[in-house]
Amino acid sequence: MQRYMQVPPSIALSGFIKHYLFLETTTEAVKQLRLFADGHTGWVFSFKDRLIRGFTPDGTPAYLPDSFVYGQVNAFRDLYGHGHISLMIVVFHAHAVYSLLGIPSGELKDDILPTAELFGSAAGTLYDRLLEQPDISEKIRMVEDFFGTWLSGKSFPVQSPVTAAMRFIATSKGLVTVQQLTQLTGCHERKLERAFTAGIGVSPKQFAGIVKLHVFLRCLKTSPSSTHLTSLAYDAGYADQPHLIREFKKYTGLTPSQYRHQVHPLAVNFLAFRSPGV
Q1: Beta bridge partner(s), residue 263
Q2: How far is CA 105 from the centre of its chain?
Q3: Model confidence pLDDT, tens digit, residues 173-207
Q4: Which side of the chain, N or C, has fewer Cβ within a 10 Å radius?
């Protein structure tokens, strides 16, 4: 059994939340999963069997909390699942963690934290209510009510240069230079890099590379399987196929061919391996 659903947020929260994901799958054997960079962070609620962070030398699983927040993923991170996996993921916009919490996003880079450490005891109460609620629409309403309360009366960091640069990178499909970004924002390169690291957790160059990777993934998804990788590489703005393979492997740990044949996407940047992992 496998289910996948993506739901947009309300207009009121669309400046912070990109979308909600609902994933459900069952597996008898321990399955290797892989989360890789997509430029976003997220809050995960696990309602059935918990995800596994890794294993001790004697094979004992180290479980993740029922509810956790993950920061920007610099490249990729392997997790494991066993049994009945049922997840609700609040996928944040790149700047949202800094905006919501006032914590520099670079401090959460490649990290996973229990939500209580970030949102306090109210996060545990929210999880308990979500666990008892089977209806997806009601789950979303509960989360949105939580954020409505959280945002009430708060002021948030202004990130105008970062926001403008991110939009330019997105509309340019990652095909930008740092010089173009400094001209756009009026910031020196070092100042812009510091602002990006604090605001979204990665440098402008890294963010552009992630955007470009996902342009290629969209090309791969929408093109016939017979389409040659070189053609897709050019379409996504890579100089040649070797450049594509090098960048793709840096962010996913896989070659494009391995991605096509050895994994099954549970979400855009969340994979399940069909066979022993790479």
Answers
A1: 273
A2: 13
A3: 999 999 999 999 999 999 999 999 999 999 999 99
A4: N
